[in-house]
Amino acid sequence: MLPAYDIIVVGAGHAGCEAAAAAANLGSSVLLVTMNMTNMAQMSCNPAMGGIAKGQIIREIDAMGGVSGIVTDKSMIQFRMLNKSKGPAMWSPRSQNDRMLFSHEWRKQLENIPDLDFFQDTATQLWMENNTLRGIKTGMGHRIESKSVILTNGTFLNGMIHIGKKTISGGRIGEEPSVGLTEQLNALGFKSSRMKTGTPVRIDGRTIDFSKLEEQKGDKNPGKFSFQGTPPLKKQRSCYLAFTNPKVHETLRLGFSDSPMFAGRISGIGPRYCPSIEDKIDRFSHKDSHQLFVEPEGWDTIEYYLNGFSSSLPDHIQVKALRNIPGFENAKIFRPGYAIEYDYFPPEQLTYTLETKIAGNLYFAGQINGTTGYEEAAAQGLMAGINAHRKIHALPQVILSRSQAYIGVLIDDLITKGVDEPYRMFTSRAEHRILLRQDNADLRLTPLGHSIGLASPDRFNKVTFKKQSIKELHSFFQKTSIHPDEINNYLHNTGRALLSQKVRLASLLVRPGIGIHDLSRNSTTLKNYLDHHTGLDPEVIEEAEIQIKYETYIKKEQEMALKLSRLEDIAIPSSIDYSKLRSISFEAREKLSRIQPVTLGQASRISGVSPSDISVLIVYLGR
Q1: How is 75-119 classified by DSSP, letter by letter?
Q2: What span, in angstroms and rounded, lies between the C-alpha atoms of 320 and 95?
Q3: Which of 223, 284, 438, 525 is most exposed, with minimal Cβ within 10 Å?
Q4: pLDDT, tens digit (0-9, with 9 covering 90-100), for 543-591
Q5: Is the pTM of this model over 0.85?
C-alpha cells in the first residue's frame, strides 16, 4: 500500500520532527510514522523552550536551518534572557510557550515540506533481511521499505507510568507504549537499560490565589530564538513563584511508603538535576522550603504547570500537599503528576553521526539515547536527519566539533562518555563556551548549514551581511578616538577613572559596565556613525560589543581549541586491537575496545583513559 522511502522516521516528538524536516528539506523522500498525529512535538513536560545552555542549542538548530527556533517564536507567550548579570557566554534565552499552539505550528511546518509524508501507526519491528535493514513493520501489518530508519521513540519503549501503587502501561498518560522494538534490538546485539522521568500536577488556574504568589514578568524588550524574520512578541503572560514549607514536606512524607521510587518498583535512573519533589525533600531534608515555578500552558487556557513539583506519589497525597502551599489552598487539579519508566540504549553504541554501530543505516535520536529535554532531543534529530540523508546519497558525514557547537559537545559526550543518568546540557559541559555563545550561533553554523543545502540562500546572505557590518563597526571602534572633554563628565558621574588624553573607543568599551550606547551619548563621532547607519541591526551592535569587550579571552579560547583539535586530526584505525597494547592500563584497553574511538581526541575524553595511555597510542600510531 505504501511506497518505498529513502528514510523512515519513527516517532513525532522533538527529535523525530527535526529529523524528518531536515532529511526532507535536503531532498530525501521521508515518511514520519507516529502513533498520534495530533500530538506532534508535544510538550509532554513543561511548556517552555531554552534555558541554561538549552537556549544556545535551539539557536544552533535554527542557524543550521532547523525548525525548532521558528516554531518556538511563533508559539511564545513569554521571553526571558537568563544570566544577563553574568558574561555573554552564560546568557541563555528561555521562553514560555502555548503548548497546543507549539504542536500546531510544528505540524504546519512539516505539512509544508513537499517530500515529507505521514502515517499514523505503531512501528513494532525493524524489517531486517540477512542482517540488512529493509524498513519497518507496523502494528497494522504493513511492511514499509526504506534505505534508512531513524528511531526517536522518546519515553514510549515499554513505557510504564507510576502513580503511587498504581502502574499503567503507557508512553505518556493516556497513550499506549511501544512494545517489541527493544526486544528485537536486544536480539540483534544491542544493550538496553531503563530510565525514568516525571511530571507534576496540572492545575486549574481559576483555583489559584495569585495574590499570594510572586509575579515573574518577561523581558521588557523580548528577544527571539530564530535568526529568521519571525514576529516579535507584542504581549506576554506572566509566570509566578511559589514556595513549599515544612507542612507541605510533612504531608508528602505521608506517601513515602506508597512511593514507587522508595519502594523499589522503579528500577530506572532518574534525572539528577530535575528530581521529583519527594526526592528533593528526601535528599535535602535540611531545607524547609523549595522554589516552585507556576507556568501558564498557553494564551487562552486556565491550565497551569507547577514546575518543580513532579511526583509519583499517590494522587490524594499530591493534592493534599499542594493545598498546603500558599496560594493553592483551594486548588483543583486536571491530572496528577506521575513518573514514567522506559527503555533506552546506552549511546556508546552509536557513531558520531548517530548511526548505530551494529546495524547500518539505523539511527537513534532523542531520549532513546539517554538524554532528557526537548532541546537535546531536537538537536540529535537534526543531526541524525542530516547524516541519514547524506549517507544514502553518498555524501560526506556532518560532525560538529566541541569547539564549534553545543550540539557537538552533546553528541561527543553521549558516544564517548555514555550516560549513567538522563543527560542534560549545561554551559559547564562545554570547555569552549566563550566561543559557543547564543548570540553568534548563526555566524558559527549558518555557513555550514548553507553548504550542505539546509540553510537557505536568504539565511546565508543575511549572515554574510551581518558579518560585514560587525567587521565595519569593530574597525570603527579600533580606529576612532574620543577626547577627554567628551567623556570625562560621564566617567566622573559614574565613578570611573577619568581620561588624561585621547583614547580609542575600543579601549573605553572594554571597561566593565560601559556599552556602545553609553559611548554614543557622549561621542559625537560615534553618534553620527550610528545615525548614518540607521538600519544597523541591534544584533550587530551587540555582537560587535561582545567581540571587542572579550577579544582577549576569545583569542585565547580559539588558540586552545586549535591545540586540542590537533588530536582530533589523528585518526585511529578501526582495525586496532587494544588488547595487544599491554603498556595501556586494563581499564583503558577495555573502554577503548568497547567505545572504539575514531580519533585520539575522542580517546582522550573517555573516562578511565589517562594521558599516559594516550602517549602510548601516539607512539603506536607512529606519531
Answers
A1: TEEEEEEETTTS-GGG-EEEEEE-HHHHHHHHHHHHHT-TTEEEE
A2: 30
A3: 284
A4: 999 999 999 999 999 998 888 788 888 889 988 999 888 888 888 898 8
A5: yes
